[in-house]
Amino acid sequence: MKKMFLTILSIICIILVSAAIFSIHLLKEKNTNLDINAKSANTNIQQIKITYDNFNLLSKTEMIKALPDDAVLVLQFIKNNDIEKSYITTKSKIEEINKEEISKLAPDLIIIIPSSYLDNLTTANFCSIIQEAKNNGDLGIDLKASKTSLAWKYKSMFKYKSCLGL
Q: Strand pairing partners for 79?
């Protein structure tokens, strides 16, 4: 009886994993053009230059609004290999935090980018700036969970996954 239960449970797990992989593959085919995604993510947002003083304006973008309710992301700006500013990003807010608070918050991932990219950041080009940093080899992403669990948790974000090069 126990072997039969384990066999059935294994088959169900294989089916679920296969379905997830198939879904990811289909979504990947649909989202091959980052520029279209980036533009559609910000069509209703007035283009405003982002600085450290108004960084929370990014919370108004469609991409941030699409985050899962329990999402916890950290965005860190670095200068000369030192952390200059860190921001906690959730579906409802973006706020500055200090280094010590990061481990207490248990973020899903940490995005690290040189502060020089802030010079060109607006409310309408977040994905373009992230992709530019990635293409230049300047982007760091520290996953704090497995790719599989993050893919499931952030399934509502699949149309934006190319923004981070995932």
A: 82
Instruction: Decide if 130 contacts 162 (C-beta within 8 A).
Output: no
Length of the chain: 166
CA distances from 32 to 35, 59, 111, 162 (A): 9, 25, 22, 8
Q: Which fold has domain 34-164?
A: Nonspecific Lipid-transfer Protein; Chain A (3.30.1050)
- Spatial neighbors of 88 by CB under 8 A, at least 6 apart, are 72, 73, 74, 94, 95, 97, 101, 102, 105, 107
Residue in 121, 166, 160 with CA at minimum distance from that of residue 33 = 160
Residue with tokens 């706020």: 95
Euclidean distance between CA atoms 19 and 35, whole angstroms: 28
What is the SS3 assignment for 149?
Answer: helix
Report the candidate in 77, 86, 57, 81 with the shortest Cα–Cα distance to residue 118: 77
pLDDT block averages, 10 residues each, the chain of length 166: 51 49 48 43 66 91 88 94 93 89 88 94 89 92 88 85 68
In the chain, where the domains are located: 1-30, 34-164
Q: Determine contact, residues 83/113, Cβ cutoff 8 Å.
A: no
pTM score, whole prediction:
0.69
